[in-house]
Structures are given as C-alpha cells and as structure tokens.
C-alpha cells in the first residue's frame, strides 16, 4: 500500500545565494528522499520556500541600498533557477510573502492565543540611541555567555550554535553603528514553551529511530528546561501581529517560518484543485519528515512540535534527519562573510550530477564532513567516469556495434550471470532500507559496489573475445551487463537523476525512469538501443588548482 510522505525542507533566507553547505546539508538529502519515495509509488509532498522576513533580509537591503522586497524577489528567483538546474524537485517552492502564509500564520497564532499557549508580557529589548530604534537580534552583537565568542548574534551564537535570548549577551552593541545599546521595556507576545516540557519529553522518548546527533541536541535542550520565547519583535518588516496595539511590531521570523510548512501545503492543495487534499499529508498515517541543518534542530524537534501540540489535529514530525555541517577545504562556510562555493557559480562550469554524487557520497549525516576540489575530481574521475560510466559505455557500445543496436537475446544464463543479477536485486532491497532510514552515504557505497562487481564480470567474461567464436556466450554476458545497468539507472535515480534518465534512454526505454518503479526493470531482448554517449565527462586535473585559488581569492576579498 502506498504511503503519504510529507517532506518539509528548511526555508532558506532570501538574503544571499545558495552555497554547497546548504545543498549537502538540506536540499540534496531532501530531494534524494523525495525521488526515492516517488519511485516507490508513494505519494510525496515536498515543500519549502524562501524566507522573506527577518533581519537578514533587511540588513542585506541596507547593504545593497534597496528594499527588503527587492532583495527577497531577487534571491527567490535565484533559488528557483538553482533548483531547476540541480534537479531539486519541490512540489511547491513558495515564499513567506504570500497572503495565504499570513492567513495560516494568523490562524495558528490565534488558536494558540485562545488556548493560553501565547501570552502578552513586557520584555527588555535592546535599543540603539544613535539609530533611534529597537534592535532586532541580528542587528545586535555581543559576547556569548556560553563560549565567549565576541560576535554572537542576539538570537544565536554562530560559534557554539546555542539559541540565545538577547538579555544573555554581554557587551552588546548595535551592529550598524557599533554604539553600545541600552535596554528599554517593550510589550510582546510569548510562546509558553515551558508548559510543553512534560509532553515533549514523553514524545521525544518514543523517537528511538531518530539520528543520535538529533536526539542528543534535543535532550540537551530538554534537560536544561524549556523557557518561554518571545514571538514578536519591534520591526516593520514581517507578518503583522493580528492584535490591536501591535501595529508597529511583527511576528518573529522563527515562529512564522515553521508555520510555512503548513501554509505551503495548503497553497499546494489549491493548485491541485482540491483545497483539502493537503490533509492527507498531515493527518492519520502520513509520515512527516523535516530536512534541515543542525543549527535548526531546536525549532523542529521542540518548538514546532509544541506549536502543533497546542494547535491540535495535525501530525507531529515522524523524523527530523538533520545534518551536520559541511566545510570547504577545511574551512567553515558563511553566507554573511561571503566564504563559500556558490551553487550558481558551480553550475555555470560543471554538470549537476557529479556534484550531487560527491556531496551524497560524503554527506555530513552524523558528523561534519569536508568538500575539497581534489576529492570532487577523484569521485568524478575514478568513480563516476571510470566505474559507472565505463561500465555503461562498454556494455552499450559493444551491444550497439555487435548486435545490430539491440538488446541481445541471452539464451540460458549460467550461475555467474544469475548471481550478478541476484546481486542487482539485492542492491535494490538494501538501498531501499537505507534510504527509508535516510542513510544516504551508505546507500551510495552499496550502489557503487554493484557497478564495480559488474565491471569485474565483464572483464572475466570478455565478450569481445567470445563474440568471434561463441556468439551466444557473448550475448549472454552483454545481456547480463545491460540488465545490471537497468538496475543501476533506477537505484541511482534519486542521486543522479540526469544521468539516470539518459541511461534509461540509451537502454531503449521510453518515458522517464520514474515510471518504472523501484524494481529492476526487465530488459526485453530485441529492444532497440539508442546511440550511446558517455554518461560522465572526465575532468582535467588542473581544475583542482584553478578552483582552489578561486576559493582562496574569495576569502581574501572578504578579509580586506
Ligand atoms: Zn545604531
Ligand atoms: Zn557561543
């Protein structure tokens, strides 16, 4: 029976371009997971959108001398363009700037308010006497009370990743003008997170299938005790607060961004011609997965579940397979500091699949991982080109030249050939289990080992020798190799959608890999093949030098 799989993907701030850290940590794993479930015949709804609100956007607008609207629109356009080119297959990628999002946010806000989960209180808020305004968290800098980092933001420490309340920072000053800020009283709404401590604790205890690092982070917050959190801010950019007296304040971005998963689902339903079809992904047996970076765990394993518990009637997360961070050549990435490999830049020079492969094979699943151009080159040349691509090219061109461009008729398969086809079946089963549990790195290894085994098989069988004397034996080994390719194009599809579609076509199939389902698609003898082309391109070794110096010069520019 097919399942309903909801995939909520963290909303990127529309304040700067996407870099490889975003892709490895969040968007690629979500896309692999979505493609896998679609191929299995499950119903998938994968949504996200650009987060148009919050101080990162207004700061960027001030830096660029433009409006927050223009900044948000520009990066939203860039995001959708990048998804298309990298093959990130959202069912809907919207923005938090829609009327629908405001309406759904207000609905959740008012439901929580009516039940006493949201209350009004006064809080001290930082005020800059020179700029003459209240300072939202990201306009503030100070020293982290936990690790001593001197450039911690008002809401979170970049160094130790702890969420912070503004009052905790030491030596706070305005980020725009460096003037020390003072605290003034301001009235705000608060989420009564403390009242969910017990319910959340009981619920988290049941999540034994979650990743250790996600559980570990979550338990740390629970053990420290949950505190109520302000959900409005003195700002003029964001979702308005649906209460009188709050005209000059806005809903705090983290509160409405998580509601985006629900508002996007409702928006998607409208595009399907059935306003209520979203419910199939939020109720009963539907499983709700959230993909995000580790700095976002708190909001997805505790805050959003608390909001859902308070609201009632909707599924809590089934799994939150948050990733750790990706470093580049050993250095930590940062959008605000311009230290990154930008995705759009990569896509101008290289194909999407080699990047998808390199990032998936070394995904920061349970610990930080590093991307280097040297490793990228090695994975492309040794694994994609020399192993998988070589297998495809050898088998396809041989069949194309020697069997009239068709799939040869194999006759009876010997034990060795049957064994290999059996391994292909087994790989689909194993990868199925791994992907269901979001173990992407391990899945890539399994798949590549099938390709390696098939290469060994061709070497042993040497169909180019047998073709002269025992045409039948040659046909058998070529048929077996092509059948393994039919398995590989399916099992690699979630990772390498573009090359899988091409291989699907070279093998003589019509339509898309998607339509074949999660099984080794039977290759009919006599099927007309299409003229084969190399699946991957070998890259020159000097790209390592070129790209590394590009990256270093980016860093140097930022420093000066
Ligand atoms: Zn100031
Ligand atoms: Zn810190």
Name some characteristics of this structure.
17 helices, elongated, 16 strands, binds zinc ion, single chain, four-stranded parallel beta sheet, four-stranded antiparallel beta sheet, 560 residues, alpha/beta
Explain this structure.
- By secondary structure, the chain is of the alpha/beta class.
- The protein is 48% helix and 13% strand.
- It has helices spanning 20-39, 55-64, 68-86, 99-114, 197-205, 212-224, 253-271, 297-311, 343-349, 352-361, 373-402, 415-436, 440-461, 463-469, 471-491, 497-506, 542-559; strands spanning 4-9, 43-50, 92-95, 118-128, 133-134, 140-143, 152-153, 170-174, 182-191, 229-230, 232-233, 250-251, 287-291, 326-328, 331-332, 369-371.
- The strands form five sheets. The chain has a four-stranded parallel beta sheet with strand order 3-2-1-13, with helices on both faces.
- Strand 14 and strand 15 (331-332) form a beta hairpin.
- Helix 4 packs across helix 7, helix 5 (197-205) packs antiparallel against helix 6 (212-224) and helix 13 packs antiparallel against helix 15.
- The longest helix has 30 residues, at 373-402.
- The chain is elongated and about 90 Å long.
- The chain starts with a strand and ends with a helix.
- The mean pLDDT is 93.
- The structure holds zinc ion (2 copies).
- One zinc ion is lined by residues 144, 146-147, 149, 152, 157, 159-160, 162.
């Amino acid at each position: 029976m097919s399942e309903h799989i909801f995939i909520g993907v963290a909303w990127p701030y529309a304040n700067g371009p996407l870099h490889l850290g975003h892709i490895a940590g969040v968007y690629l794993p979500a896309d692999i997971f979505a493609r896998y479930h679609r191929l299995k015949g499950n119903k998938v709804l994968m949504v996200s959108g650009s987060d148009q609100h919050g101080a990162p956007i207004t700061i960027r607008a001030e830096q660029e001398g433009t409006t927050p609207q223009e900044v948000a629109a520009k990066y939203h356009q860039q995001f959708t363009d990048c998804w298309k080119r990298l093959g990130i297959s959202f069912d809907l990628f919207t923005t938090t700037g829609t009327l629908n999002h405001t309406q759904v946010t207000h609905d959740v806000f008012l439901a929580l308010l009516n039940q006493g989960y949201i209350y009004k209180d006064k809080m001290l808020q930082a005020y800059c006497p020179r700029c003459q305004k209240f300072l939202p968290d990201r306009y503030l800098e100070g020293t982290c009370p936990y690790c001593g980092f001197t450039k911690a933001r008002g809401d979170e420490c970049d160094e130790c990743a702890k969420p912070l309340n503004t009052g905790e920072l030491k030596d706070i000053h305005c980020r725009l003008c460096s003037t020390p800020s003072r605290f003034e009283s301001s009235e705000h709404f608060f989420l009564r997170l403390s009242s969910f401590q017990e319910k959340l604790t009981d619920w988290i205890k049941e999540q034994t299938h979650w990743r250790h690092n996600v559980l570990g982070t979550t338990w740390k917050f629970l053990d420290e005790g949950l505190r109520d959190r302000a959900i409005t801010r003195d700002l003029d950019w964001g979702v308005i607060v649906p209460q009188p007296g709050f005209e000059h304040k806005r809903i705090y971005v983290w509160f409405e961004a998580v509601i985006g998963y629900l508002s996007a689902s409702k928006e998607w339903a409208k595009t399907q011609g059935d306003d209520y079809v979203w419910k199939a992904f939020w109720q009963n047996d539907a499983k709700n997965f959230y993909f995000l970076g580790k700095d976002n765990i708190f909001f997805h394993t505790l805050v959003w579940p608390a909001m859902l518990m308070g609201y009632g009637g909707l599924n809590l997360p089934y799994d939150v397979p948050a990733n750790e961070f990706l470093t580049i050549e050993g250095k930590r990435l940062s959008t605000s500091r311009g230290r990154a490999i930008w995705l759009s830049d990569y896509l101008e020079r290289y194909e999407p699949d080699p990047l998808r492969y390199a990032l998936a094979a070394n995904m920061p699943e349970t610990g930080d991982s590093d991307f280097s151009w040297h490793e990228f080159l090695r994975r492309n040349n040794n694994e994609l080109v020399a192993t998988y691509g070589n297998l495809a090219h050898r088998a396809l061109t041989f069949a194309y030249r020697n069997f009239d461009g068709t799939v040869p008729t194999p006759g009876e398969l010997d034990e060795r050939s049957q064994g290999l086809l059996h391994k292909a079946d087994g790989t689909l089963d194993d990868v199925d289990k791994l992907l269901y549990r979001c173990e992407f790195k391990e899945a890539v290894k399994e798949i590549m080992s099938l390709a390696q085994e098939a290469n060994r098989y061709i070497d042993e069988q040497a169909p180019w020798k047998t073709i002269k004397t025992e045409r039948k034996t040659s046909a058998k080994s070529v048929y077996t190799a092509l059948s393994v390719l039919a398995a590989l194009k399916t099992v690699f599809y979630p990772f390498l959608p573009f090359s899988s579609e091409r291989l699907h076509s070279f093998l003589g199939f019509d339509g898309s890999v998607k339509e074949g389902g999660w099984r080794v698609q039977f290759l009919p003898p006599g099927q007309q093949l299409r003229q084969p082309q190399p699946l991957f391109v070998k890259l020159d070794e000097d790209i390592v030098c070129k790209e590394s110096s590009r990256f270093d010069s980016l860093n140097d520019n930022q420093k000066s």
